[in-house]
């Protein structure tokens, strides 16, 4: 799927500074659904076009819950702009979405002539106009015809937007409204999606005549989520001019709160040499590398593919040698003893144990707590009691989870493991706590003898 951004603001090649992507190169990024590319088919002082191309890997979109459903293999997801493209846009143009530009800060704050084209998008001309026109865009949308032998129009559009808009605003319009036009999300919609909607809609969504439709579609028709978002928009809409100048505290997504809780636990035990066990694609590793307190960082995972993703995410090939020497990536199964893992200050199992079959947990305990035996171990896992707050969730939070524990079950397992291997254990809540169900994530900090 494809999206192009064109400007004639002179010099037009300054678009590269705003997007933080050099016009003379092809940039590639690994994303959860495939590979995203940014390239410039034209780059002159008079006119510059940046193209975002998302090459979707259909295998990554397969729904494992029903492997015999033909719809997994025959669908429009790799071709029609949707939440997949919006998610890629958010990752690739992260700084531009925030309106940040180290090299051209004054230009980032300026309204510039823009032309945006999305050549294949599900939706109607009427809806596209209702969504984009109130934001100052001139909308030219043409239905894509079906084959001549069939006749008529398909349900897809070729969308062209023209206007003089701040680039950050344009990108945020697209981030929200592409999934709204498609009326689908390719991932589970959790409560943190409300924050994403309000953050990206800041300054324009509250006054949009279609804000109810936008909220409902963006939040996958989860009525409780949409009602919550709309109530907060109403409050924002009546803020006085004086209050409007005050900074608004951002509620961090749960993944960010979980990461920060792990970093705080590591700081509490003065860990410098850290193992990230079951590191996956490197979400925690990225935060560890940025913190100079950690002098040696090891990411371990049974999946070689996950380690490749982590290496790209960390940009190990571009790090200075001194920084690169702090980081090691090892393929290792946590249910088997590995002498390389012995002697570290701390080990982290962040959202890992719930992916292990219960009969294999004793093997994991023996290899991590018994054989590797770091001075401290940090374990996080979902709190099953909190699942009632996720509207529409009937099973576990992820299809690969083997179990999800209540707080009592987690504390019983952690206390028994601590007694068996000579640790003391304490517990922390991660995320906003509910008075009866607790927080969405639970954390255990195991501390051995100093």
UniProtKB/TrEMBL annotation:
Q: Where is the Methyltransferase type domain?
A: 275-377
Name the UniProt key words of this record, in alphabetical order.
Answer: Magnesium, Metal-binding, Methyltransferase, RNA-binding, RNA-mediated gene silencing, S-adenosyl-L-methionine, Transferase
Q: Which EC numbers characterise this protein's activity in its record? A: 2.1.1.386
Question: Known catalysed reaction(s)?
Answer: small RNA 3'-end nucleotide + S-adenosyl-L-methionine = small RNA 3'-end 2'-O-methylnucleotide + S-adenosyl-L-homocysteine + H(+)
Residue ranges of the TM segments: none
Tell me which residues make up the Hen1 N-terminal domain.
1-233
Q: InterPro entries from the entry?
A: 3'-RNA_MeTfrase_Hen1_bac, Hen1, Hen1_N, Hen1_N_sf, Methyltransf_12, SAM-dependent_MTases_sf
Mind telling me what this protein is named?
Small RNA 2'-O-methyltransferase
